Structure formats: C-alpha cells, structure tokens
Amino acid sequence: MPRRKGISPVIATVIIVAVTIAVAIAVAFWMTGIVGLFTGAEKLEIVSINAAPTAGGWTITITVRNTGTTTTSIDSIYINGYLAFTTAAGANVLDCVNGLNPGLPVRLAPGDQANIVFNINQGACNLGANNRVFSATPGGSIEVKLHSTGGKEYPKLVVLP
Predict the structure, then answer these.
(1) pTM of the model
(2) Which of 77, 112, 125, 127 has CB 3.0 to 4.6 Å from 96, enough for a Cys bridge?
(3) What range does the domain containing 14 cover?
C-alpha cells in the first residue's frame, strides 16, 4: 500500500499564521473605515472680526471657516456672554442688536467660509425688561461667541472704534 505524504507541520503552521495575519490586517482596515465614518471632528475658525462705525453704533462683520471634517451650523451668537441671536423661537435676547439679520443658522460644510453681519447699538444693552447687562461704548471691547449645533463655542474679542 503506497504511503501518502502531506505537508509538514512547519509548513502548515506558517500557512495558518500567514492567513491569520492577512485576516487581522483586513479587519484593521475595515474598522478604521468604520471609525472614520462616526468620528467627524467639528472645528470652526474665526478668520476675522471687524467693527465698523455707523450712525449710533457699529456693524460687526465676522468671517468664519469650517476647518473640521464634518458639516456644522452656527445656531446662536452671544455678546459678552448674553444671547444676541438664536434660531430658537421665543428666546430672550439683547435689545441692542438689530438691523442686519445674520441669517441663522449658518451651515458650513468642511472647507466652507461665511460672513456673519449684524449691528450693535451704542449705549446700554438690555436683556428683557430693561435689565441692563452691559454698555457698548467707543474704545470698549465686546466678546462675540459663536455657538454651533455640535454644542461647541468659538469666542473672539473685538474692540469698538
């Protein structure tokens, strides 16, 4: 009776290890792709902020760019920590901001840039029923903070000329 020969145990072990490594690499690439889909990074950058004098106040122009990897929207603007503009209905906002509507929400895809323009009046800024919260004066500074739908805030200081 002829004797059959198979592959040696060493060769069998090498083949099993090679297949296992190939499967592990394939799973690693697959998982990296899945993780990349679910972990987009939101990052807005305020490129510039300018205050131009107008009759009785200033026009504030903010240039913002999305440098992140996911689309986001700006849904609120705060001035000195107080809500100035929002997409929420019935929100209590400052009475010293008016004029040009910044058009919220401002939607920004990765790489997009947008200008947000609004007016702020000189003098007292009130919240609700004449509850004075701060005063906008020439030479003073205000902090403008953009709030995104992702829950992040992006502050920038501007000096009023």
Answers:
(1) 0.70
(2) 125
(3) 6-39
Tokens encoding 116: 């947000």
The tens place of each residue's pLDDT in the chain, 161 residues long, gives: 667 777 788 888 999 999 999 999 988 888 777 666 666 788 999 999 999 999 888 999 999 999 988 899 998 888 888 888 777 665 667 777 764 456 788 899 999 999 988 888 888 888 766 576 788 889 989 999 999 988 899 999 999 99
Split into its structural domains, the chain has a count of: 2
Contact 147, 134 (CB under 8 A): no
Residues 35 and 52 in one domain: no
DSSP 161: -
Mind spelling out the 3-state secondary structure of 140-155? CEEEEEEEECCCCEEE
Query: What CATH number does the domain containing 56 carry?
Result: 2.60.40
Give yes or no for a contact between 57 and 136, defined as CB atoms under 8 angstroms apart.
yes
What's the token pair of residue 158? 């501007």
The C-alpha atoms of residue 76 and residue 86 are separated, in whole angstroms, by 4
Tokens for 19? 């297949």
Give the residue ranges of DSSP H helices in the chain. Answer: 9-38
In a domain, 1, yes or no: no
